[in-house]
Amino acid sequence: MQGLTNGMTSHGGFEGDAVVSVASLSKKFPNGTLAVDNVSFDVPAGQVLGLLGLSGSGKSTLMRLINGLHQPTSGHVSVLGAVIDECSPSELRDARRNIGFVFQQFGLVGRMTCIENVLVGSLGRLRGPRLGVRMYPKALRVKALERLERVGLLAQAFQRADTLSGGQMQRVAIARSLMQEPKVLLADEPVASLDPESSVQVLDLISQIAREDGMTVICSLHQVELAVGRTDRLIGLRDGRVVLDKMTAGTDQESVMSLYRRSGTAEAEEARVAQLA
Amino acid sequence: MSNKTTTTHDAPSMRTTPPVSGRLVLQWVFFVGYLLVFLWSWNKLNMSVFSFFSDLGNVGNLFKRMYPPDFGDMGRIVEAMVETIWMALLGTVGAVILSYPLALAAAHNTTKSKALRALSRGVITLSRAVPEIILAAIFVAAFGPGPFSGILALALHSIGMIGRLFADAIETATEQPREAVISVGATKRQTTRSAILPQALPSMIATSLFRFEINLRGSAILGLVGAGGIGQIISESLETIQYRPALAAVLVLFVVILAIEIVSTSVRRSLIGEAANLQLSAQRYSFLKKMFQRRDARVNKAATAERRLSPPWTSERLFRTTMLASAIVLIVAAIVTVNVDWIRAITNFDQISIVLKQMLPPSFSGERSNVFTGLIESFAISVVATTLGVAIALPLGVAMARNINVRRWFSTFMRMFVLALRGIPELIIAVIFVSAMGLGAVPGTLALSVTVAVFAAKLFADTMEEVSPAPREAVVSVGATRPQEFISSVVPQFVSPFVAHFFYLLDVFFRSSTVLGIVGGGGIGFLLLQSIRVFEFQLTTMIVLGVYLIVLSIEWLGLGVRRLYR
């Protein structure tokens, strides 16, 4: 895979084939929390990147910065050539069309059927608001059914989203992202509210789709064991800073786990991580 | 078909539209049925779209006759105003105390027994079926004129709304925390306190304060039947065609209601803890904001350092505690200073049984056909007024919802506008419309529509602000525009509460339509007040029974329809 060879690029600069480029990015919230602290990395096309860290380490904020749900305090994010933090509202909408986003809490409207939730994914390419399945063009409805089939939920197409299990809901949310035909998929803790079995199912689905479609994926997780084997590269965050950045191949779980250990001083911790990298 | 590029050939059986379910058919049947009822009511009342503008002109002319206001008797107005506030406050407190156990008994997640639930729901509904002004008239007959009759009337009547919304708040509490608390071996009371109440409390406090605001307008009217407060001054002035002093009293009432509403809203928001009103208002002054933030950061840090066992005194907690303390002080002040001899009131309480005996058995007293005509007219008024009002309220509510509008100042402005209109009690609006357009159901209906619109706009806006942000964010993240996001993620979430609200509004304003007749606005109200004035209490009971039956049918129908659109 291309991503495997291009994984370790120089930090900060805009690499030619980098699909997502994060440069000296910081985000400080009005309440004073520095959620993301001078983070830089490039993600080449087709790479599946696992973003690791404890809750509160800044993973979610980073993901939100990448698709413009938050505005950075300093630094820049560019996705597919568009500098997200400098986009006008309509440029931002254009950029988002190519970026799928999978949320921890799925973001489905419970009252709507699965197919309508999936169809919502095509709104970025449509003009005007839509309410009800019939308001979407037939071609898109057919496409939505195909996406549902791909995530294995064709039979549930006309079932209300709130009748599904958590794992099924997340698969509908993935189908919604696929409806965008995204080049980049951001998955923010996609399995944090799922049971272990569904978690494996959902992550396998994401990595399978990424491989088949050559999609660039950034997936934040807090379970290291889930990341190993499904990602090309791992980046670890702690207190908003990058403390680990290495290719997954050849990495053993134990060494990455040290990211989670809170024993010892911060310096010792960083030294250990540096050693690791 | 243009889908040839995307269709896979192995999917000929794929249907792209939802299958027609019985539920969908029923939803449409109900919708069309409602439209028919609306058209029938519209015809029944001889409403006409064409006369709207001349009607509005007439209303404008009347304002000219009322202007300028005459503030000659300011001392009396202020005294009456204070009495009105105390009546509203004590009436609400009484209703909250009575509603809490009723709501616990009415909610399915706190009470197992179906019979007990039905009984308490029945009591809650019954108390709402009797308009507060009618209750006040009856209590005045029992205890004589004065604020005690008003307080009692407000307390009993408010159970209808507070009890029901408390029960709803309890029922909408999520199950998991309750199950979690039960699983550690907690008793039923502990479960209610630890798992249900914390979830329901913000909504319950908001409901109580909201009802206090409504009761303030309600208590202003009670003077019409001799239960004290500023209504007495307004009604005396109106009856003697002294429009200018009447406007003076109305203006005082208006300003006071506005002021209290502003305070109440900020308290409501701070108690709900929705990022605190304090922070909102502080945002306008960045130095204040920084000051609060710096202080809070310091306090939080100190609390962590010294391992405090109680929450730190952040600005928000200080604010919240101050508000709670002031509420308690106000209630005590009301009890002490209101013009009620509490000991006499309690010892004379059995007076009510004498009147109650005169009320039974219910009898038509030879007015059978008048009762039926009046009730049908009231129902038609409420259907038309609710529909017209909701049609105006929907865009207003969207404009008022802070989470929908990018420009916060715009929603704040709309809120202030609606808030100002809400300050005028519905019967005062009705009096103005009747004076301008003459006696009849049309001015009554139009006046009620205005009340419905401002009442519902606030309800809709508050509900829209509670819409879950997760689906909205998801829709935004696919690159949708704001209108697309609104239609695809807010509207579907709004349907179910909207249906619930609609029936609630129909409920509330059918009750209102039954007292419009007191000021000549059509419906059963004229006959109702007449029956009390001539001591035909048996007829009063019969009419109240008729009203109760209709309210009960609306609620029963509402339960079914709510389930249909859930």
In round numbers, the mean pLDDT of chain A is 84
Approximate shape of chain B: globular
The total strand number of chain B stands at: 0
CATH architecture of the largest domain in chain B: Orthogonal Bundle
Main sheet characteristics of chain B = none
Could you list the spans of chain B in which at least 5 consecutive residues all have pLDDT below 50?
A: 1-12, 274-282
CATH secondary-structure class of the largest domain in chain B = Mainly Alpha
- Oligomerization status of the protein chains: heterodimer
Tally the structural domains of chain B: 3
How many DSSP E strands of chain A?
10
Helix fraction of chain B?
Answer: over 70%
Radius of gyration of chain A: 19 Å
**pLDDT averaged over residues of chain B:** 84
CATH superfamily of the largest domain in chain B: MetI-like
Could you tell me the CATH topology label of the largest domain in chain B: MetI-like fold
**Helix count from the secondary structure assignment of chain A:** 10
| Spatial gap, N to C terminus of chain B | 35 Å
List the helices and strands and how they pair.
The complex is a heterodimer of chains A (277) and B (566).
Chain A: H1 2-6, E1 18-28, E2 34-44, E3 48-52, H2 59-66, E4 74-79, E5 82-83, H3 89-97, E6 99-102, H4 114-119, H5 138-150, H6 166-179, E7 184-188, H7 196-213, E8 216-221, H8 224-227, E9 233-238, E10 241-247, H9 253-257, H10 266-276
Parallel strand pairs in A: 3-8, 3-9, 6-7, 7-8
Antiparallel strand pairs in A: 1-2, 1-4, 4-5, 9-10
Chain B: H1 22-44, H2 52-66, H3 74-106, H4 114-129, H5 132-143, H6 147-171, H7 175-183, H8 188-221, H9 230-239, H10 243-272, H11 277-282, H12 286-305, H13 315-337, H14 342-347, H15 351-359, H16 368-400, H17 408-422, H18 426-437, H19 441-465, H20 469-477, H21 482-513, H22 525-533, H23 537-564
